[in-house]
Design a protein that fits this description.
about 190 residues, alpha/beta, Rossmann fold, six-stranded mixed β-sheet, 9 strands, about 25% helix, binds 1-O-pyrophosphono-5-O-phosphono-alpha-D-ribofuranose
Length: about 190
């Protein structure tokens, strides 16, 4: 099959998404490399992958299909209150169910932004006494960090753009886009003016 390179925003989304920041091809390529790195570090040991809902949905699915080692999968539901662009108060909507004591944990999130989410979630998991925890994020937006935290595995370093797609939302929308795109400011400006 002849796969065309998709670098421009599909017409349906053009009024809302300014441009594509990371294409589906770039995502696939990078995730494959990331998975190899993780595989090497975990040396074939079984891991518990803990994924944060809901933004990780696509990244997680693609990442674990590239991980050639035994794993178990669980989710923590955590969300910043409200649907604006700022990470506000955090609420836990689903707790971990698998026992991670003495296990190797890979904590997966879609984006590391202010760092508030990971710095709330990590102590919660540490308290369950895993053997070790490694963190993996698809995107790292270092410019907005307020917590002193960094991820062990990072897919892409990105500037301070409002990004959506490939699991990332704005007001719960755009998660289904197969690429990471930059949201038109007029979309979130209208929202935060309400
Ligand atoms: C987003 C994202 C990360 C978090 C990162 O979650 O999925 O978990 O914010 O931001 P931070 O580093 O500033 O804490 P959100 O609360 O929007 O929930 P979602 O995953 O359901 O979109």
């Amino acid at each position: 099959m002849n796969v065309k390179r998709k670098t421009s925003v599909p017409p349906r989304w053009r009024s809302e998404v300014e441009r594509i920041l990371i294409t589906d091809e770039q995502l696939a390529k990078r995730i494959k490399i990331l998975a190899h790195e993780i595989e090497k570090d975990f040396r074939g040991r079984e891991m518990v992958v803990v994924s944060l809902l809901s933004g990780t949905v696509m990244f997680l699915a693609d990442l674990i299909r590239q991980l050639n080692l035994p794993l178990r999968l669980d989710f923590i539901g955590v969300s910043s209150y409200g649907s604006g662009s700022e990470s506000g108060e955090l609420v836990f909507t689903k707790e971990l169910r698998l026992d991670v004591r003495n296990r190797d944990v890979l904590l997966v999130d879609d984006i590391l932004d202010t760092g508030k989410t990971l710095s709330r979630v990590l102590p919660k998991i540490r308290a369950l006494k895993p053997r070790r925890i490694k963190t993996c994020v698809l995107l790292n937006k270092a410019a907005r960090r307020v917590e002193k935290i960094q991820a062990d595995y990072v897919g892409f370093e990105i500037p301070d753009y409002f990004v959506v797609g490939y699991g990332l939302d704005f007001a719960e929308r755009y998660r289904n886009l197969p690429f990471v795109g930059v949201l038109h400011p007029h979309i979130y400006e209208v929202f935060s003016a309400k």
